[in-house]
Amino acid sequence: MVYISTMEQKEDRYKAVYTAIANNIHFLRKSQGLTQEQVGMMIGKTRSYIVNIENNRVEVPIYVLYQLADVFECKVYDLLPSSYKDLEAPPIESEIPVSALENVAVLNALEEVHNEVSKG
């Protein structure tokens, strides 16, 4: 059976990773009793930048993840989703079978190419 993956599914998974990061940062900040302004000052950023991170409006650069891990006294991987399985987006390789008619069309096209190559 042939499976396809759509660009939209990949984008959903990509967004889900950053949403999980944003949620983890928000949780750690709140659990340590820090304000967005305090965290921003500790890493040399503005409060609005931290707001944008927590609201998933920016993709957090790796160096900022390291800075935040220092602030929260954790490992960088504590800011990341624990696994792809935990994400809400559909799997990248979805189980959407290509229809039998599409398979026949592909086979017919391949047969035509093969016949053309065999002639010449």
Key phrases:
single chain; 120 residues; mainly alpha; 434 Repressor (Amino-terminal Domain); 5 helices; 60% helix
**Per the principal axes of the C-alpha atoms, what is the gross shape?**
rod-shaped
Structural class category:
mainly alpha
Spell the H/E element sequence: HHHHH
Uncertain residue ranges? 89-102
How would you name the CATH homologous superfamily?
lambda repressor-like DNA-binding domains
- In angstroms, what separates the terminal alpha carbons? 32 Å
Q: What's the level 1 CATH class?
A: Mainly Alpha
The CATH architecture category equals Orthogonal Bundle
Sheet of most strands? none
CATH topology descriptor? 434 Repressor (Amino-terminal Domain)
> Into how many domains do the coordinates divide?
1
Helix share bin: 55-70%
**Share of residues in strands:** under 5%
Number of helices: 5
Number of strands: 0
- What is the typical, i.e. mean, pLDDT? 79
Structure, described:
The protein has 120 residues and is mainly α. The protein is built from five helices and no strands. It has one domain: 434 Repressor (Amino-terminal Domain). Helix 2 (36-43) crosses helix 3 (47-54). It is rod-shaped. 10% of the residues are buried. Residues 89-102 have low confidence and may be disordered.
Give a quick precis of the structure.
This protein is mostly helical and 120 residues long. 60% of the residues lie in helices and 0% in strands.
Question: What's the structural blueprint in terms of helices and strands?
Answer:
Blueprint: H1 7-31, H2 36-43, H3 47-54, H4 62-72, H5 100-119
Helix pairs in contact: 2-3
